[in-house]
Design a protein that fits this description.
The complex is a heterodimer of chains A (about 550) and B (about 250). Chain A is built from 21 helices and nine strands. Chain A is globular, with a radius of gyration of 32 Å. Chain B has a single domain, classed as Rossmann fold (3-Layer(aba) Sandwich), CATH 3.40.50.880. Chain B is about 25% helix and about 25% strand. In chain B, helix 2 links the parallel strand 1 and strand 2. The two termini of chain B are about 20 Å apart. The chains are: A mainly alpha (about 550), B alpha/beta (about 250).
Chain lengths: ~550, ~250
């Protein structure tokens, strides 16, 4: 992947260093397993575990000659281990190491993305709660439909990302498999029990394989990535629509010194959203290639390998970048609530047409007749730019069924929001954030005595260590390790919407009350932890503290 | 004045004793104040608050293991509701004596400066020791305080200690300030009054065993005067502290 989109923590997973290191872990797990069944003597295993290492540059030099990366790697490790290297790679084929390692690396990359995706879900939920009662226009086919709230829109995004996280979790479970079964997977030269022990050490499950792990396993991971990417793209696409000049309901944060266009100084463009939409296309293309890797010749050909070398780092790095971009976008987006209200008024109240229709049917009018009248007046309202309510009140057919007061009551925007609380509550009971965060967010506070303070316990431990022969230990300080579990959002605060509209007038909505959810705000949380640690958990006269938030 | 009259008069003095989960010297203090000194004594429960400060002539925070010494000795008790009231009481000039765990609680609550570390010996030290009254030794400390006003300068008291965390610590800079401002009440010494490492039972900085708060109306004391309030208990020296408090209250 090009540097521009490569964040270091995810790129490093795909570095040569990490690849060889993972290969080494697999080889060492196999050696340990062989030792367990008595095939490798303790002394040799100890020697192997102590001395096995590699040098990336040296491997590259050797590979120029061997044209085979696993052999080059083994040659290099053997150089450091010496004679006992004859026990390394016993009865294995290159794919045993390559595919088992591939699973481990893929899992590492998915896990990193999983933690990022959880942050995105948290950001979306926080904003959904913040804008839970912010009225805006719901649009279908790009055309005004009925009122929604901005929080409602964001809650849908939250649920979707939550499902994306479930798919990632499933993919991680699927990819947690390895194969150590020899050239065509028949264990002809490799004991199955060694596979079992070694894979246990690596926390992988054995899977029936020929020379390689079947590629549908990995295709599933690419699907989880591409689908999460598409969901991110959907959110970004929404942002682009909302940022269009004619809509202007929300926009990406525009930082000091940022420039929109080289030619047009007035421009503020949705560049982050467009960037996400573009990159997501690459993820989808890579999924096609991953699917095409599934059919291989007989017990294996190597046509998949070159593809995977490109698409696996690329897709995992790109989705990570996308998630990162989207988190920043969501956290910092600017929301124009006033503009959302103004836009709702563009269509002169026709957005209440369904309420009018249903009321007239309720009063005994035939559905077909009511529809015709309401449709006619609604279209007229837009064409003549006249309030829909005024037209209704001046229409004799309508007045036969509805009084002016009844018409007025239909134009109350609160009618559309009566179930917002229910929607949020149901959503969070099915997709509770706490479960997403692995049950709980934990903070660890370490309390240690200040350097200048005498630590009698430490001294006592030191003297025991010394008398037990551990002469390398110079000093011991005993401290406290305190774990705090942080409460997650599990209930929605009941903030009542304070919005109303009067028929014929402009839709008049008082701004609704909103509250940030303090428990989710990391800055507030950090401050609180700081306070707890300083005031209660430690005594600043004698102790220092250090907070870690997971 | 005969002793009966003195005791009659004492009955007008009201003392409060705080009770935390894990306090275990509350009844000892009650016995000393009620039975030996004939005061009007009541308990203050840790969950309660009180605002009728005039109802208490002084308050004792007794020894024990409040909250099992969890987190740090005295740390949790210092954050209890009753301590909020006691802080207000002390700020308004109320007399507060913290004994042993009570001393630790006063340190943790910020009414006294410094902190307690585990005894240097790592042992629970339970024995009779000697402390020397050094209050008034400093020219800045010429005024009388409620706790030592009946004692002679350099008076030596024999009192029992029973604690695991009595190793007093404070930053060097603050230590100098405490001495120069007369805030040190008692130092551990031997029978002859010599202050040395040998007579230091817990490793306390400068052998500090008793300490005043900012306005001399609060004192933390590591030994237990209530366990030495009558000769029959092995020493009556603890009575000197309670008699000082009673005298001070009567004559203020």
């Amino acid at each position: 992947m090009i540097d521009r989109y490569s964040l270091p923590e995810i790129s490093s997973i795909w570095s040569l260093e990490n690849k060889y290191n993972t290969w080494l872990q697999v080889e060492l797990a196999v050696c340990s397993a062989y030792n367990k069944i008595g095939r490798i003597p303790d002394k040799s295993l100890y020697n192997i575990l102590q001395n096995a290492k590699f040098d990336v540059a040296e491997i590259e030099e050797t590979e120029k000659i061997t044209k085979h990366d696993v052999i080059a790697f083994l040659t290099n490790v053997a150089k450091y281990v010496g004679e006992d290297s004859r026990y390394i790679h016993l009865g294995l084929t290159s794919s045993d190491i390559g595919d088992t390692s591939f699973s481990l690396l893929f899992r590492q990359a998915l896990n990193l993305n999983l933690s990022k995706a959880k942050i995105l879900a948290e950001s979306l939920l926080q904003k959904a709660l913040k804008y839970k009662y912010t009225p805006m226009m719901g649009r279908t086919h790009g055309i005004h439909a009925e009122p929604i709230t901005f929080g409602f829109k964001l809650l849908i995004f939250y649920e979707e990302i939550y499902r994306g996280i479930s798919r990632l979790n499933k993919a991680i479970e699927t990819v947690s498999c390895g194969k150590l079964s020899g050239a065509v997977g028949t264990f002809a030269n490799f004991p199955p029990e060694v596979e079992k022990i070694a894979l246990d050490i690596l926390d992988l499950k054995p899977i029936l394989s020929n020379q390689v792990i079947q590629r549908d396993i990995y295709a599933e991971c690419f699907y989880a990535i591409a689908s999460l990417g598409a969901s991110c793209e959907k959110i970004a696409l929404e942002m682009r629509h909302l940022m269009r000049t004619e809509v202007s309901e929300a926009e990406e944060a525009f930082s000091a010194g940022q420039k929109g266009s080289s030619a047009m100084p007035h421009k503020k463009n949705p560049i982050v959203s467009e960037n996400i939409c573009g990159l997501s296309r690459v993820l989808r293309s890579n999924l096609i290639s991953a699917l095409e890797d599934i059919p291989l010749w007989h017990e294996r050909d190597i046509s998949h390998s070159s593809v995977e070398r490109i698409i696996t780092p690329d897709s995992t790095i790109l989705i990570y970048y996308i998630l990162n971009q989207l988190i920043n976008l969501v956290d910092n987006m600017v929301v124009h609530e006033d503009r959302m209200l103004k836009n709702m008024q563009l269509t002169k109240g026709v957005i209440f047409s369904q309420k009018v229709l249903l009321a007239m049917i309720d009063k005994g009018m035939l559905r077909e007749d009511a529809y015709k009248i309401v449709q006619k007046l609604a279209h007229q309202a837009i064409q003549t730019e006249t309030e829909f309510a005024v037209l209704l009140k001046n229409n004799e057919d309508v007045l036969q069924y509805l009084s002016e007061t009844e018409i007025n009551s239909l134009f109350d925007i609160n009618n559309y929001y009566k179930n917002i609380d229910f929607i949020f509550e149901r959503s969070l009971s099915i997709f509770p954030f706490a479960a997403l965060a692995g049950g709980a967010v934990k903070a660890t506070v370490k309390v240690t005595l200040k350097d200048e303070v005498l630590d009698p316990q430490g001294k006592a431990v030191l003297s025991v260590l010394k008398s037990s022969g551990y002469t390398n230990i110079e000093d011991v300080r005993v401290g406290k390790h305190i774990e705090l579990t942080i409460k997650q959002i599990n209930k929605i605060d009941n903030i009542k919407i304070n919005a109303n509209s009067a028929a014929g007038d402009n839709i008049n909505i008082n701004s609704s009350t909103k509250e940030e959810i303090p428990k989710l705000d990391k800055k507030i949380l950090s401050k609180e932890l700081e306070e707890i640690s300083e005031k209660i958990l430690s005594n600043p006269v004698i102790e220092n503290f250090n907070i870690e938030l997971n | 004045m005969n002793i009966g009259l003195i005791l009659m008069k004492n009955k007008k003095i009201n003392a409060g004793i705080t009770v935390f989960p894990g306090s275990n010297c509350d009844m000892d203090v009650y016995y000393a104040l009620n039975d030996v000194f004939n005061l009007n004594v009541s308990f203050l429960w840790h969950k309660d608050e009180f605002h009728n400060f005039k109802n208490y002539d002084f308050i004792v925070i007794p020894g024990g293991f409040s909250y099992g010494d969890y987190l740090r000795a005295g740390a949790l008790a210092a954050r209890s509701r009753i301590m909020e009231s006691i802080k207000e009481y002390a700020d308004g000039g109320g007399i507060v004596l913290g004994i042993c765990n009570g001393f630790q609680i006063l340190l943790e609550s910020g009414l006294l400066k410094g902190a307690m570390l585990t005894n240097k010996s790592l042992k629970f030290e339970c024995k009779d020791i000697y402390i020397k009254n050094i209050s008034g030794n400093n020219r800045n400390n010429s005024h009388e305080n409620p706790f030592t006003c009946l004692m002679e300068k350099d008076a030596i008291l024999k009192l029992p200690i029973a604690h695991h965390d009595g190793n007093y610590f404070v930053e060097k800079k603050k230590l100098n300030y405490l001495f120069s401002s007369g805030y040190i009440a008692f130092q551990y010494c031997n029978e002859e009054g010599v202050i040395s490492d040998d007579s230091n039972p817990n490793g306390s900085m400068e052998n500090i065993g008793g300490l005043f708060g900012e306005n001399f109306n609060v004192m933390g004391l590591m030994p237990h005067p209530e366990r030495a309030s009558e000769k029959i208990l092995g020493s009556g020296d603890g009575a000197k502290i309670f008699n000082s408090i009673i005298y001070y209250i009567k004559n203020k």
